[in-house]
Amino acid sequence: MVSHSGLLTVMERAARKAGSKLRRDFGEVEHLQVSRKGPADFVSKADKQAEQTLVEELQKARPDWGFLLEEGGVIEGDPNKPRWIIDPLDGKTNFLHGIPHFAISIAVEEPLFGGKREVTSGLIYQPVTDESYWAEKNRGAWRHDQRLRVSARRDLADCLIATGIPFMGHGNMAEWTRIFGAVAPSVAGLRRFGAASLDLAHVASGRYDGFWESGLQPWDVAAGILMVREAGGFVSDFRGGDQMIDRKEVIAGNDATHSKLHKLVAGALR
Prior knowledge:
Elements: H1 6-32, H2 40-61, E1 66-69, E2 73-75, E3 83-90, H3 92-96, E4 103-111, E5 117-126, E6 131-136, E7 141-143, E8 146-147, E9 160-163, H4 173-183, E10 189-191, H5 196-204, E11 210-214, H6 218-230, E12 234-236, H7 244-247, E13 249-253, H8 255-268
Parallel strand pairs: 1-3, 9-10, 9-11
Antiparallel strand pairs: 1-2, 3-4, 4-5, 5-6, 6-7, 7-8, 11-13, 12-13
Helix pairs in contact: 1-2, 4-8, 5-6
């Protein structure tokens, strides 16, 4: 059994505690599909409760660390200490519709000199399948105790690529359509499963060969970016730079896939 750090043990314990409650809530959501009111209010409560559980558990272990939360915004901590970046329910729309594809994402971001910050640990937990993906800087990416590697496919014609699609009030439809027009004819298939954290975990594990999406928030991708890199993959923004969080855009894959996807995306946006 591979041993991960005490910090990851803390993260996993918190994720499993919040995850078991989400699993129970998900069973309830499936019943609520047929009610006239629908499950929206219930899901919003489940999301907030999951976040509260995570914050309480992580605060117990690291009381002076801050938080960047999807629901609760910023909770200030000691500026010289790391902070948590958390999405308590990535794939909320899936959850709402009774589709069993959602995850808890937890990342640790450490302060560096000069005001920069760096993600050094990440955990993505899928409560329905009980899959736990984790990565630590310079220690590789893992699913439970299995070492992960990005896919070895080098020809786009063989590649399965994941993405996110703009929808009402979210994303740039015209930009996405241009990129889609460039990528789709070149690849074996496209998938839109609705949880960016799991998309990146699946790139890290070689299930997907590549991924692109824009309009992403830090809590969507902080853990996943580290995971892909630790699995031997490449991650950049649409310009090929390192500003994924600031520019809210990500391209990921192995060296060849990333390079070819980047070329197609950049060409589409010229």
